Amino acid sequence: MATRDDAKGTGVYSIIAIPIIIWTLIPLLWTLALSLKGKDALANADANILGNFWPKQVSWENYQLIFTGGASDLFLPALRNSVIVCLSATVISVVLATFCAYAIARLDFPGKRMILTTALGVSFFPVIAMVTPLFDVWRNIGLFDTIPGLIIPYLSLTLPLSIWILAAFFQQIPWEMEQAAQVDGATTWQAFRKVIVPLAAPGVFTTAIITFFTAWNDFVFAISLTADKARTVPAALAFFTGASQFEQPTGGIMAAAVVVTIPVVILVLLFQRRIVAGLTSGAVKG
Amino acid sequence: MSATPELDVERSDERPVPPREGRRRHLSDRSRAERNLGWRLAMPAFAIMVAVTGYPILQAIWNSFFSYRLTDPENKHFTFLSNYWVALKDGVFWQAVGVTFLITVITVVVEFFLGMVIAMVMHKIVIPRRTLRTIVLIPYSIITVVSAFAWFFAFRTDSGFVNHWFSWVPGIDPSTDWFGNFWGSIFVICLSEIWKTTPFMSLLLLAGLAQIDTSMEEAAEVDGATYWQRLTRVILPNMKAAIMVALLFRTLDAFRIFDNIFIMTGGANGTSSLSVLTYNQTIDRVEIGMGSALAVLLFLFVLLIAFIFVKAFKVDLAGGRS
């Protein structure tokens, strides 16, 4: 590192940023490129430009395959399951965690540290270790391959995360507002509902996004605890087959990947600053 | 409002109450009510969190003492530690342990250096500051399975572009089969894992960088310290806490690696991690007893790593403050 960095920041950092941006974007562009390749372009390098990267002829057949064609039976129910399961797990976790984190940040009661330590411990839990017993029990009590059978284990991913992030967010809230309300005669509960909830809403919303990402990403529970009815998108991608058994499912998988990636990328573009604050808040102590 | 988010749970929020006689009873009622409300608000989340994780692990420990195959429930019988004994004697188990540690070490080390560079650039960059932060964050939001497929197809001989782009590198030609051998597979698995999780690492490191008092760095520069000296003597020691947290989080996360391996190789060429091995035993072979024993062993490894880190972390914290 021979470069002397200027405290004001020079073009050096902008130049180093270029390879970082390329490294990040290439797999995304590649996913998009594959989804736009027809059968011919997938099999034959000569039908592509930039060293087999981008198709000469853009084809929408993969999107047709997953929305109206042979793979729609697999993809559309999976998309629906993913949305239902992830939204349910997110809402349940964030609602419960909001109360919990408020108590931790605001009220004085024994056991606060224990709750946070437990949340941290649970979030390090190897997911596969929970799958083995659940696979057996879920089969016996009829929760195997059902939506609730996925939501319940998802809570073990989403609840600790929500508690941890929300507790950090809530500790930054200007609590004088609540005291002011209480001086004016509001009860603790009223102060919570009328004053703190509006103040806390951005933090809650950010926590919901991060929690949703985590649920949306799950693969281990989804392939282990479902057969076909409750399968979510990540699990369905692993079971994609081509239009015929002689065809690779590459294009269809990537088209489905693009479809499930677009909404989360939009969330990142819109709420980048908040997501960064949420991800780092619980982890970094002063 | 503090600039640095702090999880200082021991902080008590004493309200300024005038120390007058007659207020005391009111105060103790109030603090008792606060304590009750605290538990009532925190309890549902805490209870459900403990139930959904505590129950499966207890059930796993119980199941691990049985010889129990799902297709043959009649034959379920207590064998105590025999599953553990069988696993610990088997080379397949130790191969999986080795692969898991290998991938964990490679990815965490690479991500730390890469994450550090990215964090420093994000910290100092002026032009495209927001764009860079947004782009760097994107892989974090991508489903791991999608990342696995993207990298998998990129390295395939039929559909991929990597062999075309890097055919000038000795040893790579259009027919190089990355997934035909152990090291090729591990390389691509690690690449996908690194691409997906470096953003998280770099954001944690960035938060640590942002907390360093810039005047210290400037003072070192005025005193004639080189860039390398400022980095190793000022910057890194002052963000030790953030580094340890980032390394701990990522190590425990990397140790659970499953998705990338499952998608790319399914464990072929000896690339099964502990999670993949546990999955195969439980779901494919429906050996609930053996699968549970492997799950418990994996859990013990995670506990051990966390314990080592927390010990090291505490030492560092004290060292940094003295």
Please provide a written account of the structure.
The complex is a heterodimer of chains A (286) and B (322). Chain A is mostly helical. Chain A has twelve helices and two strands, in the order ααββαααααααααα. Chain A has two domains: 49 residues, no CATH class; 212 residues, Orthogonal Bundle (MetI-like fold), CATH 1.10.3720.10. Chain A has a two-stranded antiparallel sheet. In chain A, α1 runs antiparallel to α12 and α3 packs across α12. The N terminus of chain A is likely disordered. By secondary structure, chain B is mainly alpha-helical. Chain B folds into two domains: 40 residues; 233 residues, MetI-like (MetI-like fold). Chain B is 70% helix and 3% strand. Chain B is built from 13 helices and two strands; from the N terminus they run αββαααααααααααα. Chain B starts with 23 loop residues before the first helix and ends with a helix. Chain B: InterPro entries: MetI-like (IPR000515), MetI-like_sf (IPR035906). Chain B: Belongs to the binding-protein-dependent transport system permease family. Chain B: It is a multi-pass membrane protein.
Distance between the termini of chain B: 27 Å
Strand order of the largest sheet of chain A: 1-2
Mean pLDDT of chain B: 83
Summing up helix and strand content along with how strands pair, one would put the structural category of chain B as mainly alpha
Which pair of protein chains has the largest interface, and what are the residue counts? Answer: A-B, 121 and 115 residues
**Second-tier CATH architecture of the largest domain in chain A:** Orthogonal Bundle
Domain count of chain A: the total is 2
What name does CATH use for the topology of the largest domain in chain B? MetI-like fold
According to DSSP, the number of beta strands of chain A is 2
Coarse morphology of chain B: globular
**What is the element string of chain B, with H for helices and E for strands?**
HEEHHHHHHHHHHHH
Overall shape of chain A: globular
Multimer state: heterodimer
Organism (chain B): Intrasporangium chromatireducens Q5-1
Family (chain B): Belongs to the binding-protein-dependent transport system permease family.
Subcellular location (chain B): Cell membrane
Pfam families (chain B): BPD_transp_1
